[in-house]
Specification:
Order of helices and strands: EHEHEHEHHEHEHEHHEHEH
Mean pLDDT: 94
Radius of gyration: 19 Å
Largest sheet: 8 strands, parallel, barrel
Strand content: 5-15%
Structural class: alpha/beta
Helix content: 40-55%
């Protein structure tokens, strides 16, 4: 069966605490392992009232400690925010604590607004070309110790933690292909260049010490419930989230609403429906059909889903129902 994985932003619900959000992530990780998901990733975002995973390595350790064998990692660490040595030490520590289970997904966006990015002491004048250099530096710190090497990541050195490149553009696809790394495309919020990125990645792939052939995952949002009507109701939470982002409003994750009509303008409705066009929303039968068609159109190697559902019990149920939707004929 095509592997299913989980992307978690540790959403902070309205009227709930950050502790609640991190506990919900722990419950989701335990359930994802039980239902056979391949990996669970947490994403680095900063200064967002609805996201609790800004200290991503700490959040990864929290859910890794609650599970036994599922792979845990970042989807992703925004590398321009950090020195490669710091990331090598953090993830080297995670690998030492949870051996053979850690992934390190990397992105090049700040994961926040520019004022917060400056507070993170990010080099705001860095060129695009510094990103591949930083990736190679990170590989150096995670690899075998070289003769006369002066700077050593401890922990980190000789851990050979697998790197992934994440992106929503053709640039990231081409870079992942050139470096021979697995690639994950953010089609859950940036659908437009998905097919072109997959084509560029596969056509330009150069084998590396980590990967001898291309490997690509695609991100999808998923809200699975007993009926299409119930799933669409639950999905209204993320639709509200996108309205708030479009309007520059920084709010916690909102409860679902019976009707979106009074909440968005026509232009917002069109934009959000376009952005979320690949979302798997509906009953198990509806979602199974959508997932089968998506896999047939893209021929991806793995699907990684985020489940933007307000109520944790509904979120856990969606996780279970989606696992049951795996189509054995879809590879």
């Amino acid at each position: 069966m095509l592997p299913l994985s989980l992307l978690d932003l540790a959403p902070i619900n309205q009227h709930e605490s950050i502790s609640d959000a991190l506990e919900n992530s722990r419950q989701m990780a335990i359930a994802a392992e039980r239902y056979g998901y391949k990996r669970i990733w947490l994403a680095e975002h900063h200064g967002m009232q609805g996201v609790a995973s800004s200290a991503t390595a700490l959040a990864i350790s929290h859910i890794a400690a609650a599970t036994k064998h599922i792979r845990i990692g970042s989807g992703g660490i925004m590398l321009p925010n950090h020195s490669p040595l710091i990331i090598a030490e953090q993830f080297g520590t995670l690998e030492a604590l949870y051996p053979g289970r850690i992934d390190l997904g990397l992105g090049r966006a700040p994961g926040t607004d520019m004022a917060t990015a400056r507070a993170l002491r990010r080099n705001m004048d860095a060129s695009v070309e510094e990103y591949p250099h930083n990736i190679r530096e990170l590989q150096y710190f995670l690899g075998a110790i070289q003769p006369e090497q002066k700077i050593i990541a401890v922990p980190g050195q000789n851990s050979h933690i697998p790197l992934w490149l994440l992106g929503s553009s053709l640039y990231s696809a081409q870079l992942a292909a050139k470096m021979g790394l697995p690639y994950s495309f953010a089609s859950h919020f940036a659908p437009d260049q998905l097919l072109d990125a997959i084509s560029l990645y596969r056509d330009g792939f150069s084998p590396s010490a980590q990967c001898d052939k291309p490997y690509i995952s695609a991100g999808l949002m998923a809200v699975v419930a007993d009926s299409d009507e119930q799933a669409n109701y639950l999905f209204s939470s993320v639709q509200q989230q996108f309205i708030n982002m479009r309007r520059g409003l920084n709010k916690p994750f909102q409860p679902p609403t019976d009707s979106m009509e009074t909440l968005w303008s026509e232009s917002e409705r069109v934009m959000i429906n376009h952005t979320l066009q690949y979302a798997l929303v509906g009953s198990p039968a509806t979602v199974k059909n959508k997932l089968t068609r998506f896999i047939a159109a893209t021929n991806v190697d793995e699907v990684i889903v985020s489940m933007p559902i307000y109520d944790i019990e509904a979120r856990l149920k969606s996780l279970e129902l989606l696992a049951a939707c795996q189509n054995t004929d879809s590879q």
